[in-house]
Design brief:
7 helices; alpha/beta; single chain; five-stranded parallel β-sheet; two-stranded antiparallel ribbon; 18% strand
């Protein structure tokens, strides 16, 4: 509840399957941004060469196969929230560009030189130890501190067994046939 209506970057930490994306949705849908877009992007789902285009968009002719201009995820999320899942899988080169987005609130489409102003709250998630990755040189320290403004730890279900009856009831209600 403390981060719902702040523009602050939020980092959700926890093991795989703990519900990090559900928490990101809850933050968005309980905030003043709820009527705007919630855009989710898995940072490990695209090869490095396509991730930048996916996040920032591209202009026609920016690379082979770019037959038309395309809006990226950040533009699509303008005035809403963007959820960057698996942020620990982000290549260093893209971390530099995202650091600029955090600092200047602007993006540039691939192949373009014009800056586009964006108003987007960034919510990230990871199951990795980013501090350890920073120490190993696999994650930028400055980027780490910019996304780790408000960390939220989601404990695994084995540490919150009181949630089991609530989850069971939810699953039961979802699977009930409607007659």
């Amino acid at each position: 509840s403390k981060v719902i209506d702040t523009p602050t970057t939020v980092m959700i930490l926890g093991e795989t399957g703990t519900g990090k994306e559900l928490l990101a949705h809850a933050i968005h849908y309980n905030s003043g941004r709820k009527n705007k877009m919630f855009v989710a992007q898995n940072c490990g789902a695209f090869p490095d060469s396509l991730l930048e285009s996916e996040l920032f968009g591209h202009v026609k002719g920016a690379y082979t196969g770019a037959f038309q201009s395309r809006t990226g995820r950040f533009e699509a999320a303008h005035e809403g929230d963007i959820f960057l899942d698996e942020i620990g899988d982000l290549p260093l080169s893209t971390q530099v560009k995202l650091l600029r987005v955090l600092e200047e609130k602007t993006i540039e489409r691939v192949g373009d030189h014009r800056s586009i102003h964006i108003d987007v709250r960034i919510i990230t998630a990871t199951n990795k130890d980013l501090k350890q990755l920073v120490d190993q040189g696999a994650f930028r320290e400055d980027f780490y501190y910019r996304i780790n403004v408000v960390p939220i730890w989601v404990p695994p279900l084995r540490e919150r067994t009181s949630d089991i009856p609530l989850l069971a009831e939810s699953f039961f209600q979802r699977n009930m046939p409607l007659h």
